[in-house]
Design brief:
Distance between the termini: 21 Å
Order of helices and strands: HEHEE
Strand content: 15-25%
Structural class: alpha+beta
Number of helices: 2
Strand order of the largest sheet: 2-1-3
């Protein structure tokens, strides 16, 4: 799911993805769910680590709010170190402003 520039709030589209992921995880009795936050390369690396952490935690909190067991969740953040789209430094790339959810059964 994707985030607006410099934000960690879930958009309506992201909320829909979280709802679907929570249903899938709960229906299948997921044993492990990993949420990873990411940013684009605009801003400092230090700032982006914190922003990606806020994004990952926002998704994890929303999953718990949808009934996913907190004990099944692992949360990680990568800042700008693992872009979906390779760019130079300082580039505002919407596809890099994301969190991913991996569900294991």
């Amino acid at each position: 799911m994707y985030f607006p520039f410099d934000q960690s709030i879930l958009t309506p589209e992201a909320t829909s993805v979280v709802t679907e992921a929570a249903k899938y995880a709960n229906d299948g009795h997921a044993t492990k769910i990993v949420v990873v936050g990411h940013t684009d390369t605009s801003g400092s690396a230090k700032y982006n680590i914190k922003l990606s952490e806020r994004r990952a935690k926002a998704v994890a909190d929303a999953l718990v709010g949808q009934g996913v067991a907190a004990g099944a969740l692992a949360v990680d953040w990568k800042g700008e170190s693992a872009p979906a789209v390779a760019t130079g430094d300082g580039v505002k790339e919407p596809l890099n402003r994301r969190s991913t959810i991996s569900i294991n059964f």
